[in-house]
């Protein structure tokens, strides 16, 4: 028998390793070439158990639905009813999460304020102080109190509507803020009292308190500084929510903000974003349980964030026990981030619309995550605000649609009993039954 | 009769054994710059937290005893004297004015303060001047470890010794130490004392009533090697 001399001998196809996949290989090569870890914006990009793994049951014979267009379904929320003389009353349960001037352009901050105000909700400052523009355009503005205290001053503290003590965020529980030199413009440097163009790496712990007992005294000071008027929020990254929420409440918080690992950041190490913290789906029930165990559920309000995209996500978060949600990444997308019409410019940056996350480089073609005045001028704050307001309205209408279908006259009447899970992981995390069963993994063990 | 008493000639006496802290702060924060109630004595502080915070009027406040955390926090114009020891974060985030601690100060004295002058007659504990953003601080005794950590701007004068890791991750603040420094933190180094430095130091020593001479001090500042990411600096942390 002779060998087959045909030129068409079948070849073994190139086979990629599941362990050393092309993305992993390129990251090893990049690390070897540069000696620096990968830094990027946004939140966790890996596939995670999420709200998509939950379904609402809706009404049927055993439950009455509400008429979709005829019967009222409330959406308002009051935040800070525990100690503050002036709680915040929002028309919708969707707020804008903290994002700094510095990370974002002045026009982007203005657009967030205008858009949020148009639909009756709040926006939040970030690690860089309060700008007159965002104060002026935000009817309700939450002032973040961060470890760096960049730009922190008495005047701004007193003209805020609420104060948010930031302990951590979902993208990096245990990490501090970061803003690279490309974005430390003269104005940003002046506001933060830093040399222009340096790589700013904020502290991860507050400079004048450590631990929950100190936090209680810090909250007392903030109340004394502001005449006990303003709600005090405490924001934490989701890691050990049961205990962290308990300690925040013990320290005197009016509102707790819980941010899951899908929550975005302006700039952080990719390894931090993808490997530290837990998904928001896994964090809400322990947080609510903590509040319930203390008899504080609905007395201390819970805002959750990290991967909220649709009205279904809003409704599911509320059904699990949150009082409101916050959005960051989705709000930027509504303003114009990752818009397909900018594809040619994303290509020049080595990426594509929908995947752009080099927010730390300050070269955002949409003019949102930049301090370059030419790029920033591309964002029309009035038009961008309208897009954000439209999007916030859609989120609210969608949440109402689901609430009415479940027979609820207010979105806050949604409850875990309205939900089932599609996967065992989601059933265990959300503590609702696997669809079609009455089995909640981990219950009664 | 209320413990709050006043005449045009006498200081306002506020007794914290009789009245609430909240009333004291509300009264002080409600003062306008043109007030004729310019002298305040706070009796029986007994270590209470957040005494005389957020005062914006240029009045003088004397606290007759020891104060707890955050005394004179975010002060913006007042002259506040603590006739005792001060707890954590005295004069934290001060914007302007004067805070004078006659005793010792606990940790994080003058943290993140943007302006004004903080004088500590005794010792300061750890992290004195942490993240300071323009304040001037004079410590007549020793200062604890990690003092001036991430200090951004302003001047820290230590007439005694400094603990470990002085000026770690320092930005543009100036540090002056007369005594020994146990160790310097990352990116902190000895600098030559310029004529401008000497003038600043002499002025602060005079304001604080110190008899030391600028020549007796060593000036420390940032080596600015860590201002940008570079893999070769990874060992600095």
**How many structural domains of chain B?**
1
Major protein interface: A-B, 31 and 43 residues
* Main sheet makeup of chain A: 8 strands, parallel
Structural shape of chain B = elongated
Number of strands of chain A: 16
**CATH homologous superfamily name of chain A?**
Aldolase class I
Helix content of chain A: 25-40%
Helix content of chain B: under 10%
CATH topology of chain A: TIM Barrel
Strand content of chain A: 5-15%
What is the CATH C level class of chain A, in words? Alpha Beta
Mean pLDDT of chain B, as a whole number? 94
CA distance, first residue to last residue of chain B: 60 Å
Rg over alpha carbons of chain A: 23 Å
Descriptive report:
The complex is a heterodimer of chains A (445) and B (237). Chain A is an alpha/beta fold and 445 residues long. Chain A has a single domain (39-430), classed as TIM Barrel (Alpha-Beta Barrel), CATH 3.20.20. Chain A has 15 helices and 16 strands. In chain A, α10 crosses α14 and α11 (329-335) crosses α14. Chain A is globular. The N and C termini of chain A lie far apart (68 Å). Chain B is mainly beta. Chain B has one domain: Pectate Lyase C-like. Chain B has 2 helices and 11 strands. In chain B, strands 1-2-3-4-5-6-7-8-9-11-10 form an 11-stranded mixed β-sheet, with helices on one face. In chain B, α1 links the parallel β1 (12-15) and β2. The longest helix of chain B has 13 residues, at 195-207. Chain B is elongated, with a radius of gyration of 19 Å.
Write the layout of secondary structure elements.
The complex is a heterodimer of chains A (445) and B (237).
Chain A: H1 22-34, E1 39-40, E2 54-56, E3 77-79, E4 88-90, E5 94-96, H2 106-118, E6 123-124, H3 132-137, E7 141-145, H4 154-159, E8 162-166, E9 178-179, H5 186-192, E10 200-201, H6 211-225, E11 232-237, H7 241-250, E12 255-259, E13 268-269, H8 270-275, H9 280-293, E14 301-305, H10 311-319, E15 324-327, H11 329-335, H12 343-348, H13 373-376, H14 381-405, E16 419-421, H15 424-430
Parallel strand pairs in A: 5-15, 6-7, 7-8, 8-11, 11-12, 12-14, 14-15
Antiparallel strand pairs in A: 1-13, 2-16, 3-4, 9-10
Helix pairs in contact in A: 2-14, 7-9, 9-15, 10-14, 11-14
Chain B: E1 12-15, H1 21-29, E2 39-43, E3 60-63, E4 76-82, E5 96-101, E6 117-120, E7 133-139, E8 153-158, E9 174-177, E10 188-191, H2 195-207, E11 218-222
Parallel strand pairs in B: 1-2, 2-3, 3-4, 4-5, 5-6, 6-7, 7-8, 8-9
Antiparallel strand pairs in B: 9-11, 10-11
């Amino acid at each position: 028998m002779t060998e087959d001399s045909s030129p068409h001998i079948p070849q073994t196809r190139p086979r990629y390793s599941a362990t050393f996949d092309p993305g992993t290989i390129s990251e090893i090569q990049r690390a070897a070439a540069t000696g620096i870890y990968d830094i990027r914006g946004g939140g966790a990009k890996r596939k995670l158990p999420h709200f998509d793994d939950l379904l609402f049951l809706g009404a049927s014979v055993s439950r009455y639905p509400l008429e979709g267009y005829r019967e009222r379904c409330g959406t308002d929320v009051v935040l800070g009813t525990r100690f503050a003389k002036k709680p915040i009353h929002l028309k919708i349960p969707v707020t804008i999460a903290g994002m700094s001037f510095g990370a974002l352009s002045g026009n982007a901050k203005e657009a967030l304020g205008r858009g949020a105000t148009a639909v009756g909700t709040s926006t939040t400052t970030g690690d860089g102080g309060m700008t007159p523009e965002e104060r002026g355009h935000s009817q309700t503005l939450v002032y973040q109190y961060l470890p760096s205290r960049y730009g922190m001053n008495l005047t701004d503290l007193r003209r805020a509507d609420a104060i948010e003590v930031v302990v951590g965020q979902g993208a990096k529980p245990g990490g501090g803020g970061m803003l690279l030199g490309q974005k430390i413009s003269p104005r940003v440097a002046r506001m933060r009292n830093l040399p222009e163009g340096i790589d700013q790496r904020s502290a991860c712990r507050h400079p004048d308190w450590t631990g929950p007992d100190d936090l209680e005294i810090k909250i007392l000071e903030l109340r004394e500084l502001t005449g006990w008027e303003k709600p005090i929020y405490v924001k934490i990254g989701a890691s050990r929510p049961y205990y962290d929420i308990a300690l925040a409440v013990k320290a005197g918080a009016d509102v707790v903000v819980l941010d899951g690992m899908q929550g975005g950041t302006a700039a952080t190490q990719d390894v931090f974003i993808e490997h530290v913290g837990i998904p928001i789906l896994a964090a809400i029930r322990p947080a609510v349980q903590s509040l319930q165990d203390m008899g504080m559920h609905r007395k201390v309000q819970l805002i959750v964030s990290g991967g909220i995209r649709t009205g279904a996500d809003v409704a599911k978060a509320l059904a699990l026990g949150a009082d409101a949600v916050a959005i960051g990444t989705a709000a930027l997308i509504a303003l114009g981030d990752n818009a397909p019409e900018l594809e040619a410019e994303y290509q020049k940056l080595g990426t594509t619309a929908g995947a752009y996350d080099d927010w730390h480089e300050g070269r955002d073609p949409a003019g949102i995550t930049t301090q370059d005045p030419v790029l920033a001028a591309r964002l029309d704050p009035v038009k961008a605000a309208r897009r954000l307001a439209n999007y916030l309205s859609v989120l609210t209408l969608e949440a109402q649609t689901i609430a009415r279908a479940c027979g609820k006259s207010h979105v806050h009447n949604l409850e875990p009993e309205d939900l089932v899970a599609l996967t065992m992981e989601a059933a265990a995390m959300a503590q609702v039954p696997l669809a079609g069963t009455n089995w909640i993994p981990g219950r009664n063990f | 009769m209320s413990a709050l008493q006043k005449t045009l000639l006498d200081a306002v006496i506020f007794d914290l054994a009789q009245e609430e802290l909240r009333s004291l702060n509300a009264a002080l924060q409600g003062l306008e710059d043109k007030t004729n109630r310019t002298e305040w004595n706070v009796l029986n502080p007994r270590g209470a937290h957040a005494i005389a915070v957020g005062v914006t009027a240029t009045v003088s406040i004397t606290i007759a005893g020891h104060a707890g955390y955050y005394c004179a926090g975010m002060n913006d114009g007042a002259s506040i004297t603590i006739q005792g020891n001060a707890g954590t974060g005295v004069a934290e985030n001060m914007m302007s004015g004067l805070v004078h601690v006659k005793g010792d100060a606990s940790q994080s004295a003058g943290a993140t303060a943007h302006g004004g002058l903080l004088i500590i007659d005794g010792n300061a504990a750890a992290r004195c001047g942490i993240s300071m953003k323009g304040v001037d601080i004079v410590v007549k005794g020793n200062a604890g470890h990690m003092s001036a950590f991430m200090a951004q701007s302003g001047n820290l004068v230590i007439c005694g010794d400094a603990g470990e890791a002085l000026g770690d991750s320092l930005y543009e603040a100036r540090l002056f130490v007369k005594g020994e420094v146990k160790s310097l933190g990352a990116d902190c180094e000895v600098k030559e004392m310029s004529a401008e430095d000497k003038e600043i130091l002499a002025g602060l020593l005079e304001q604080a009533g110190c008899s030391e001479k600028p020549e007796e001090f060593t000036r420390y500042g940032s080596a600015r090697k860590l201002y940008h990411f570079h893999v070769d600096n990874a060992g600095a942390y």
